[in-house]
């Protein structure tokens, strides 16, 4: 019994050690930073696909890290966003959903992953809202899960604000409804500190830009 | 000296370590087209790059030795090549194979309309069905706007490609529903019992369907129920004809939904003049309960049970003796239970099982005669699917159902019971991702008929472009004669052969299809001096067009259906080959929906046209040679999205036959043939107002 307790304590210590210690290899850290630079510089679908390819290559080597798959999904979200062809949009977002799913298996109960998943589900819905209205509730579910995991994650409010902003008023959306959500997003972004340089830290600018449009 | 050596050694090491190999080349598809934005990567390292718009790529690596170079792109199969990094720079000409993806993969589609929320190329979603003007959220009415289906006039049901109503069967999660329609008033079609909101998908097949479905000569309507609701919500509906309440309770991996409703048409019949003299306007009371359990990541158990009672009584005009109208009353009881379980085993096997029970009892008074009728069905079914290759599968299964009817007239009782057992096997073989062949076989044995049947079915799909395909289907279909004949005498299976050829173009915003078919009927039930036998036969041939466009007009969505039907049959009490009264040669439907954002309202309109249908005129020596006038109908609806007590609500208005077209379903003649009376709708126009409120959710989701 005592042994068991000891083992358990040891296991818990290990888990907490692992989750707090960001033991990234310098090589991985550098590569991820380079990738983030590519994202910042990206201007069109092609740039995002190239950045996605880059994170895919890292993900193939770093099979225990969720971050490369997360950003690959993020890149595909924007690649789809900047593409006009609905079939292609759909394909980018299908791929992004697979990538975010993979990130989820590497890091369970991660608020950032659920937030991005919620954003992707919503975008999938917009391709064919009539036939995919069910995705709206799936997206809401993912965002709720993200919120229970970390209510201070500002990206949840940003994504919700965005979704509300672009949803017609009649369907419970509109600028007036989006405004308080985006305000809370901006407030949360102001105090948000990512755990390290490569964990998700995007969205402050779009939140401000969108909020400006609500006024 | 020693230190110099060491320094040199280290310098050498460093320069060796920094020895870079440049890998460059071009990536093309098997057709020689450059592949842009492909991912080129050196396995096991971060090194790699993306191809440019001309398929060219170049990158350097410090890796050495024999390594694997991988290359992949969207819509292509990932490939790799071994390279040796020790012999200097490398130039490569790489070729990538196109992948089978959902967009470019052919499917089995002849005869069928894929509908449903989650399916690619879906034609109608559940929300579409609910908002078609004139359909008043009736699944069957909505299906009548698709080509191949006729407008149902004086009889409940879905009349498909010259087939009678009994030739279309309804399946709920794969299980046969014996009585899918509400209690019927003579000469008037009635609504389906099942709400469109129960389903995430409805697949309507006008022919050539899978060997999984038996006992249907013309058409299969396959309804697929929704999975777990997202949230706990309460739904309230207040209609001009009654109201309903339902409660959804969502648990972590399961949900319970319970609901009840009460409809009474007497207040509305006080406002809208009816062509029938009602003594008791239809009154319905019912409830249902659903339990769903997600038993594992891929497993789902569902049970749906419903109960309803309907009462009505009226006087029907009596053309022989106008002073003595005929009395008709009906008390209906319907019980339906459907329970299914499905689960995947590994990623190659899928099991689907189910048990369903249906009892439908009608009783009342017909003129002076007491009648009662009770239909029952108890079904068990299991299907196994094995997936193989990239897309192909093999399915086989068995089902058995105990069915029959019991009826009495003034205490005289008669009944029949049947045990129909069947097995089927079917495979979808993808020869390439552009060619698919389905081969299926179904066998049935009926204990009452004491006969076997064996029905081969096959389909072929051929992709002709990214968005287009050609399909062909052949199939043989059997079904038992209708209960009203079986109860008199055991005969044999009725039989139909379908041949279908279709061309379609599907994009996310537009659908176009043209389909031609020929149906050969044999062994149809025919009455010879009141005794049924299997000497009937017939044919149906025609073609259909469908066009749907969600893009050309902003915020609008419309579709057009046209059906041409040429059919003749000699069955039931026909003295000769003739076109049955339910078959119109030309049928047109136009459905239009427009959402006005500023008004928070969707407006919809449905126009239906049917050319004249034959009716029996005893004064005309040629049977079924007279035709009714053409049928026209224009229905309009509006759905206003709003909030009531801060809860999401939809205010709904539907008006049928707005211009008040005269609609004649057929004629009834007096016994001496001198007088006749038109069979017309219960009311020229009719309207429905409803308010649907959803508590617990502020979005338009149920």
Name the shape of chain A in a single word: globular
Shape of chain B: globular
Beta content of chain B comes to: over 45%
CATH fold naming of the largest domain in chain B: Maltoporin, Chain A
Largest interface: A-B, 35 and 44 residues
Please identify, by name, the CATH architecture of the largest domain in chain B.
Beta Barrel
Radius of gyration of chain B: 31 Å
Question: Averaged pLDDT of chain B, please?
Answer: 89
Total strands of chain B: the figure is 40
- Low-pLDDT parts of chain B are 8-16
Q: What's the CATH H-level superfamily name of the largest domain in chain B?
A: TonB-dependent receptor, beta-barrel domain
How many separate helices of chain B? Answer: 5
* Main sheet summary of chain A: none
Task: Summarize the helix and strand pattern of chain A as letters.
Answer: HHHHHHHHHH
What share of the residues of chain A lie within helices? Answer: over 70%
Distance between the termini of chain B: 85 Å
Pfam families (chain B): CarbopepD_reg_2
Organism (chain B): Pedobacter lusitanus
Keywords (chain B): Receptor, Signal
Protein name (chain B): TonB-dependent receptor
Can you put this structure into words, describing what you see?
- The complex is a heterodimer of chains A (215) and B (702).
- With 215 residues, chain A is mostly helical.
- Helices cover 75% and strands 0% of the residues of chain A.
- Chain A has helices at 2-20, 26-41, 45-61, 67-81, 86-106, 111-127, 134-149, 154-166, 175-191, 204-214.
- The N and C termini of chain A lie far apart (64 Å).
- Chain B is globular.
- By secondary structure, chain B is mainly beta.
- Chain B is built from 5 helices and 40 strands.
- Residues 8-16 of chain B have low confidence and may be disordered.
- Chain B has a 22-stranded antiparallel β-barrel.
- In chain B, strand 9 (149-150) and strand 10 form a beta hairpin.
- Chain B folds into 2 domains: 20-96, Immunoglobulin-like, CATH 2.60.40.1120; 112-695, TonB-dependent receptor, beta-barrel domain (Maltoporin, Chain A, Beta Barrel).
- Chain A binds chain B through residues 27, 31, 46, 49-50, 53-54, 56-58, 60-61, 86-87, 90-92, 95, 127-128, 130-134, 136-138, 140-141, 168-172, and chain B through 36-39, 41, 43-50, 53, 74-75, 101, 103, 116-118, 122, 125, 127-128, 200, 230-231, 507-509, 550, 557, 595, 597, 600-601, 641-642, 648, 698-701.
- Chain B: Keywords: Receptor, Signal.
- Chain B: Residues 1-19 form the signal peptide.
- Chain B: This is TonB-dependent receptor.
């Amino acid at each position: 019994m005592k042994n068991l307790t000891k083992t358990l304590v040891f296991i818990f210590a290990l888990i907490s050690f692992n989750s707090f210690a960001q033991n990234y290899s310098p090589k991985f850290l550098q590569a991820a930073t380079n990738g983030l630079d590519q994202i910042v510089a990206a201007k069109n679908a092609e740039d995002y696909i190239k950045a996605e390819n880059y994170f895919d290559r890292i993900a193939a080597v770093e099979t225990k890290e969720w971050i490369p798959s997360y950003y690959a999904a993020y890149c595909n979200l924007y690649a789809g966003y900047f593409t006009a062809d609905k079939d292609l949009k759909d394909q980018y977002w299908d791929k992004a959903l697979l990538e975010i799913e993979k990130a989820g298996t590497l890091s369970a109960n991660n608020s950032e992953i659920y937030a991005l998943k919620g954003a992707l589900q919503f975008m999938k819905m917009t391709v064919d809202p009539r036939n995919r209205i069910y995705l709206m509730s799936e997206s809401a579910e993912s965002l709720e899960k993200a919120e229970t995991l970390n209510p201070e994650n500002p990206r949840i409010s940003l994504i919700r604000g965005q979704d509300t902003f672009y949803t017609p008023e009649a369907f419970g959306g509109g600028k007036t409804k989006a405004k308080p959500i985006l305000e809370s997003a901006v407030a949360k972004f102001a105090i948000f500190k990512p755990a390290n340089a490569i964990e998700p830290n995007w969205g402050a600018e779009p939140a401000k830009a969108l909020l400006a449009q609500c006024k | 000296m020693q230190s110099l050596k060491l320094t040199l050694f280290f310098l050498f090491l460093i320069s060796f370590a920094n020895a870079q190999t440049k890998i460059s080349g071009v990536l093309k598809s098997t057709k020689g087209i450059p592949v842009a934005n492909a991912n080129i990567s050196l396995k096991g390292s971060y090194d790699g790059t993306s191809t440019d718009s001309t398929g060219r790529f170049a990158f350097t690596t410090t890796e050495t030795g024999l390594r694997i170079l991988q290359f992949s792109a969207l819509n292509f199969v990932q490939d790799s090549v071994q390279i040796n990094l020790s012999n200097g720079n490398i130039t490569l000409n790489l070729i990538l194979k196109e992948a089978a993806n959902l967009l470019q993969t052919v499917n089995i589609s002849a005869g069928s309309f894929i509908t449903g929320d989650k399916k690619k190329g879906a034609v109608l979603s559940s929300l579409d069905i609910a908002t078609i003007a004139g359909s008043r959220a009736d699944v069957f009415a909505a299906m009548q706007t698709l080509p191949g289906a006729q407008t149902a006039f004086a009889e409940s049901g879905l009349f498909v490609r010259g087939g009678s109503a009994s030739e279309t069967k309804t399946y709920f999660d794969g299980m046969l529903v014996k009585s899918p329609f509400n209690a019927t008033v003579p000469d008037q079609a009635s609504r389906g019992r099942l709400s469109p909101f129960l389903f995430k998908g409805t697949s309507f097949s006008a022919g050539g369907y899978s060997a999984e479905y038996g006992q249907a000569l013309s058409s299969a309507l396959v309804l697929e129920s929704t999975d777990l609701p997202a949230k706990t919500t309460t739904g309230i509906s207040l209609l001009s004809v009654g109201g309903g309440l339902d409660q959804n309770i969502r648990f972590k991996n399961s949900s319970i939904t319970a609901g009840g409703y009460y409809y009474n048409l007497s207040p509305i019949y006080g406002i809208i003049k009816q062509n029938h003299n009602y003594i008791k306007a239809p009154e319905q009371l019912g409830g249902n309960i659903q339990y769903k359990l997600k038993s594992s990541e891929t497993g789902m158990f569902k049970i749906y049970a419903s109960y309803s009672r309907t009462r009505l009584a009226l006087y029907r005009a009596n053309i022989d003796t106008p002073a003595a109208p005929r009395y008709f009353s009906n008390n209906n009881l319907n019980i339906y239970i459907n329970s299914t379980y499905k689960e995947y085993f590994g990623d190659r096997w899928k099991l689907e099982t189910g048990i369903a029970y249906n009892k439908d009892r009608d009783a009342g008074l017909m003129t002076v005669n007491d009648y009662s009728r009770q239909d029952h069905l108890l079904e068990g079914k299991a299907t196994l699917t094995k997936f193989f290759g990239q897309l192909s599968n093999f399915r086989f299964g068995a089902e058995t159902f105990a069915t029959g009817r019991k009826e009495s007239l003034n205490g005289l009782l008669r009944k029949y019971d049947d045990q129909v057992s069947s097995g089927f096997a079917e495979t979808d073989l993808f020869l390439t991702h552009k060619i698919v062949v389905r081969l299926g076989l179904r066998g049935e044995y009926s204990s009452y008929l004491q006969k076997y049947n064996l029905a081969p079915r096959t389909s072929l799909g051929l992709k002709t472009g990214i968005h287009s395909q050609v399909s062909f289907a052949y199939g043989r279909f059997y079904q038992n004669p209708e209960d009203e004949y079986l109860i008199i005498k055991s005969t044999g299976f009725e039989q139909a052969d379908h041949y279908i050829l279709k061309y379609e173009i599907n994009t996310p915003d537009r659908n176009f299809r043209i389909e031609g078919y020929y149906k050969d009927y044999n062994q149809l039930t025919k009455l010879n001096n009141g005794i049924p036998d299997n000497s009937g036969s017939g044919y149906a041939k025609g073609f259909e067009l469908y066009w749907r466009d969600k893009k050309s007009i902003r915020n609008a969505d419309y579709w057009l259906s046209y059906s041409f039907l040429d059919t003749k049959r000699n069955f039931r009490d026909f003295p000769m080959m003739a076109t049955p009264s339910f078959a119109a040669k030309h049928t047109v439907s136009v459905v239009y929906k427009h959402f006005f954002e500023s008004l928070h309202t969707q407006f919809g309109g449905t126009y239906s046209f049917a050319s004249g249908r034959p009716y029996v005129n005893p004064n005309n020596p040629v049977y079924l040679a007279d035709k009714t006038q053409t049928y026209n109908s224009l229905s309009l609806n509006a759905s206003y999205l709003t909030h009531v007590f801060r809860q999401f609500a939809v205010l709904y208005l539907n008006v049928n036959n707005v211009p008040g077209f005269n609609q004649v379903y057929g004629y009834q003649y007096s016994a001496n043939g001198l007088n006749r009376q038109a069979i017309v709708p219960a009311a020229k126009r009719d309207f429905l107002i409803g308010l649907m409120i959803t508590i617990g959710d502020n979005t338009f989701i149920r």
